Amino acid sequence: MEEVIGFGVAGLLVISLVLGVRKLFKKKKDLFDYEDEIILDNDMVHYGPFSGSIKNPYQKLVLLLAFSSSFLSAGLDIRTIDNWGIDSWGSESIMMQKTSDNTHSNLYLEMPRPFCICTDPIITTPPGNSNYNIGDKVEAMMTVDDYKPKKIVLHVKSIFDDGEYLLKPQYYPSLRYAEIIKIKFAQNVALDDMLFNTKGMRNAMKQSEKICLSGYDLEEPEIQETSLI
Question: How many Å is the maximal CA-CA distance in the chain?
């Protein structure tokens, strides 16, 4: 009987010793170890503006309006005192526009982002009795102010539904300081001559450049289905 009790006590001591040793060498996880863990929970709602996770699709629009309503701007549509039009052309370009004296033709100067430098001018004009196709070339004489007339070539780049031509001039003289631009066709060309009063063009270019280099939204934002919010 005493031997049984002795073996029992010895067994309990061995078991206690083993458990104590395991507890002693087992690494205790510190509370700060959880700081670097990333908790992934599909049911969480993230309200940060850069979280990229919003459960309701209209909630994103509400947050956008709440954070950015003061910066939403309409599309660009300006008419200067010199009667130059300054308009947005999509979201990345400004287009300056001048109507000819007979109001039939229009001169356009594009200023695209990000460099905001005026590119080649383009002209729209009615076809008259002509019948040109896309890719055709039309010769003309261009006179800037009182300078000597210069021979230019007008490329037919496009034809609108109403028959108007979109012409891109080539070999034209400097237009930056021009106040009067005349385009005269030969007698065998069935297009009307053009006269553009371009006074104030330098100022229009400066203002357009300021707008182009700024963060102004050139295109009016389209917000739809707001009634569903």
Answer: 137
Q: Is the dihedral of CA 196, 202, 208, 212 positive or negative?
A: positive
Q: Count of CB atoms within 10 A of residue 48's CB?
A: 9
pLDDT in tens, 61-101: 333 333 333 333 447 889 999 999 999 888 889 999 999 99
Residue type, 125: T
- Cα 147 to Cα 150: distance, rounded to the nearest angstrom: 9
Q: Give, in order, the Cα–Cα distances in Å from 213 to each of 85, 92, 117, 207.
A: 18, 11, 10, 10
Neighbours of 218 (CB within 10 A): 20
Q: Is residue 170 within 8 Å of 155, Cβ to Cβ?
A: yes
**CA 46, CA 35: separation in Å to the nearest integer?**
19
